[in-house]
Fold each of these.
Amino acid sequence: MRKRRIVCIIMVLLTMGVVFPLFAGGAEEETAVEKPEEERDYYYWDEVETAEELEFIRDIVRDDAVPVTVDVEKPVRVALIFPAEDLSDSWLRGHIAMEERLKELKIPYELATMGSKHNDHTTQKTHLERALVEKYDYVIVGPTEIYVQAAAIEQLVADPDIEVIVWNYTTPLMQWGKTREEGQPLAYVGFGHYGGAQILGKYILNTYDFENVAYIYGVPGATSIQRGHTVRDMLSAAGINTVYETYCDWDREKAYEATKSILTAYPEVEHIHVISTAMAAGAAAAIEEMGKTGKVIINGWGGGSEEQDLLLAGQLRFTVLRNQDDWGVSLAEIIKLDLEGRRDEIPLVFNGEMTLVDHTFDRPAIDEILDYAFRYSGELEIK
């Protein structure tokens, strides 16, 4: 793995909304079965593309970079708009991997990053409006909540001079049709929230004999439904009792306080299911403070550096570890395919691969997975 240490002061600036230009393993799969029959306004990836189409882009992402085959006369202007989640390093890793891959692909580019807090919809809307006015060639947006940002994204997609990639979503909205011609953006890139929930739900049912479970979600919307409600419904169908559910705005401190309240009000709870790194860290801290580490089981989501430390310390028991750099590499490769006039070869959804990691993994076993998963972003020092 390409190792380096990066002092990530950039993340502090991003959470403040600062905008600045920059120049330049054995994964488990989401299956096409067991999908809930709920009323929904989004498609699953296998409803808009085939497994072969998805594997085409995955193969490109896994392989070494092949430089762009056309002359790119002037730098490609890219706007990267995303929420800098306070503990998860996934956004930063994607950012680094995208830039490193663009360099390997020999694509000249100018990058403007526009950050916000994870639940700061207003700031992100301002960034999207700016991207529309300044007409970036590519706008990569990780929505704070896709339903809130849908109208702004529609405006960008409607501009013939701008290509839009939706980051951290793999479920195209039905309101935009099934194809780009009908109104979909150039692509969606992420790790399937529903697929990760399937992996976690199946693991719980095969490993534990819980009777009482509580749930901590992010904010109301697609991500909480797919990551959280999916597991809740799987466990409920197996007869496991839901004692409490709450939203904590993806925030560590709110999850910490919520966990203390849950443990006080519901001493019978055996597992608190959490759907993000930041909230898992807050929940784990509350459980440790109340002397219940190992007695009340906590999971993570994503398998980043913070989660690995908590897992090895025994504070988390399991998580899904994303092949994290893939989602940055895929952004660069999608841009390359578009520049080469191969738009029709770009699948609508890049759905990244994830691996279940639990307390039985030691440091060498995790590092073996990370050699690939963090191959561009390496070791991070976040300040």
Amino acid sequence: MTNNRRRTFISYGGFLLLVQLAAACGPAESGKEEAPQARPEANATPGASVEPGGKAAADADLVVAFGDSLFAGYQLGQDQGFAPALERELAKLGQPAHVFNAGVSGDTSAEGLQRLAYVLDGLPKKPDLVIVGLGGNDMLRGVSPEVTRKNLTAIMEELDRRNIDVVLAGMRAAPNMGRDYAQAFDPIYPDLAERYDVPLYPFILDGVIGDKKLLLPDGVHPNPQGVGKIVSGIGGTIAKALDLIGRQ
């Protein structure tokens, strides 16, 4: 492990402690039972995408960013969160798409599973691609990796049943969770990607965690520059997936 990567992972451990102390991602608990509901964030605006030049693209691919605060645009402006930033990145890559923000701050994998059908059924059309980015809050709360794996598997099963393509955005356990936890948690994402034959972006926070210039003052969530770093990393994976879908 390089010195820079070691320092980043140490900072990631500090990030875990901050979240556990501040509960910045929200009050949701993994075992909480409640009716599915939409809890839109600041930039959750369906149908707002435009092609370069300002022309609306009603027939553009529909991508759903289904996750937690990292997708929701926590404390960011209307056009600064993951969904609008990814739209801009995909346009730059020549693969324009509508990106619908289905991120909810605080969501665990259990809560994501609970609202999945509600989100999909409420869309104007069947999505071409869903980006699944859940599990971080499970890890931060110490939820059993077996539970997280079961919930994420159920999410993948439902998307597969509906014949919806998926890109899986991975998470990694912070060092504070211990080796045993990491050995059970970290393989969830590559295992599911292999099982369902879907693209995997291994770590959604790669290159962001540990860099104060890319984080909000809470030291936890990405600022607009951090979001830009995230989408520049994952954007190529999304664009390639959309291109392959278009060739089918």
Amino acid sequence: MFERILIPLDGSRLAERILVQVGKILRRKDSEVILVRAVPGLPEIPTVQYAAMIRQEEEVARKYLHGTAEQLRASGVNARTAILKGHPVDVIRQAVEVENATMIAMTTHGRSGLTRWTLGSVAEMVARNSQVPVLLLRSFTPGPSGTTTEAREVEAPFGRILVPTDGSERADAVWSSVEEFALLFEAEVVLLRVEAPGNHAPLDLLNSACDILEKSAHPSASQSLAAKLAEKGIRVRHLVATGDPASEIVDRSVTESADLIAMTTQGRSGLSKWLLGSVAERVLRGASTPILLVRAP
């Protein structure tokens, strides 16, 4: 996952914070970092003035990326650059394919303008459709009375990883990525399972019967994977909560002092299960903790 990391930048200081926050990942000996920036494409019938403006923006983007890459190389990062034309979401998707990226890392807020883009909405769209893991870090953190403050420009510790699961194999697709993070940062993994509150005894009994049948047919995928992590010396802890999944995940990320929430963008729905797609989006919007989203196969 850390082999080829794609980092979208828009020229803002807020977007650049990711370079410091994930510095330990970028400095890995086997990691390659691709800095990408989107510039507008020409319309079908461009005016001379607009074409000149685009050329100027391309030159500004080229100098900016070159300077940023040079700074990274000076700190031991294997970095290169890419400038592509089009909408930022399309550019990021294209860059992932062209560069064979294995992970996207980006902040969730930037700034807008001709060649700038609002990273909040872009981040959501990228995370929703990306075929590779997406690591999202906040440029701002929530404060009292609805205020926000800029996130500290320091390396994220990633010492405790909260991993929500609904018990399905799809939900557990995130585990290989979690393993890489845990080994690199010597992190503790907290496995969280959230069950919907049961108000009717017959429904509870039916849910329990379904779980018993599942376990008798094969061991829980998350239990098996957690055991494998433990064998590699990774600390694993289990939590069970009852309530609204997205709210519980956000709340537990605070009470457990999690440095990272790692989850899939698709799970399964049905009896006592929850659809991870919608949950992931709500967590993305509500949590101040960095989030790693992995698309389930």
Amino acid sequence: MLYPRMVRVRQLFDVPPPIKDIPTAVRQTLKRLKLASDIKPGETVAITAGSRGTANVAIIMKTVVEELKATGARPFIVPTMGSHGGATAEGQVDILRHFGITEESMGVPVKSSMDVVKIGETLGFPVYLDRFASEADHIAVVARIKPQVGLTIEIGSGIHKMMAIGLGKHKGASTYHRAMIHHGYPKVIQHVGREVLKRAKIAFALGIVENAYAQTAKIEAALPGEIERKENELLRSAKSWMMRLPFKEVDVLIVNEIGKNISGDGMDTPIIGRFTDPLDHTTQPKITRIIVVDLTDQTYGNAVGIGMADFATKRLVEKIDRHATYVNALTGLAPEVARIPPYFDSDREAVDVALSTIGMIEPESAKMIRIRNTRDLGEADVSEAYLPLIKKRKDLVQLGEPKELQFDRQGNLLPLEATGP
């Protein structure tokens, strides 16, 4: 089969630059809260730590720990990730370790348990809180804020979701997802978050926003009474800085890796245009076929999101931890995201099949895009069919000349290496 030749393009997103001094940015925003007025020496503070691959997360967490210690408090870290890590205490600690968050690196205990306590009710169902967090004198919520399919601009994925799904652990996440069948995602997340703010001892929240290059662009802290308003503001920034594919019309999209550290859905749904709002015809890309090639190491075999692809590879499927994947998908009442599509022994076979299922388009003329993952879209390989469009776009820079697709002896695509700044 003849393949389209590919050329590297760099996207020029109109976004703020990354924060140069992360510790100083964290200290400055926390200083405004005057934590010492509420957190007394000797009191304990549970700090949330999620399962997403947030940029600079270890540095941010370490600085929060240091600032709390400076007040005389005794902070500790609580894994807050719903059903991720196979819904086990040990699995969630292991995920944090992969992000550089350990007792040794943070200098404080990491207390992990799947036990929860009921702290209240909302919309007719119970609200749960991690047992260790419930026993602390205070709770500090640290969360990256970003848009998420099914959640409104007022909520998104961030502080409220961390208070609900994260601090609710597996039992809470399962309960809330069942409630979403009747009440919808945004309403449940908002109401549970408000109940946690009312019943739990939330001292403050720290919201993190990344720009389109997955760089830390904004860090802001908020007291309990400010959290909902502040999260709204930060989410608007996150949406305006959101990454995107370089083109909306795509015959074949090759995604090198998927994983929970990339997105809660394995792949960011607004990026790929799958499982999104069917009424949104303005921002969704139209992609005929999606190939997923591999899993990230940091997803620990959780292949949630593979069900959004049309084709996969044998090496990805062989890495799947069925228990971790099924627990996560079924907790979210979304078995479809764990469905395994047709998969093939090599990347070449998957590409061949994908190109043969795009209609009356000759393979060498296909509009094909290859990306590392949906979180790293600063550079992408695109096919020659896009060249006329590239020349008209001021936000795209062509890097080099078109080249043939490169496969190794096993028929797998050679790594998509970065070209540098």
